[in-house]
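sorry for the late reply, my laptop died twice this morning and i had to redo everyting from scratch. anyway the thing you sent over, i finally got around to it. pasting the sequence first so we're on the same page, its 80 residues, then the predicted structure underneath. double check i copied it right bc i was rushing
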Amino acid sequence: MITIVIPSFKHAQYLTIQIASIIRQGALVSRIITVNDGSTDVTADVLAKIQINEPRLMAKNLTDNVGFLQAAHIGLSYQV
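ok and here's the structure:
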């Protein structure tokens, strides 16, 4: 089982395709953790829509931009 962490800052336009590609990998991927790194675009809305139909997706929405590396570490901290 694999957990995938996706830090994202203002990349809403890519998330649907990116997550769909991960979902197509099947049961091999047990969890998808996406960290919205303080985006001011519609990233949070896109993730909320995907979460409706994808129980493996966990979205963490940060209020401030902390940078790629810190966002990745935050995502890893949610890994079980």
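The chain has a mean pLDDT of 95.
thats about all i looked at so far, will dig more tmrw
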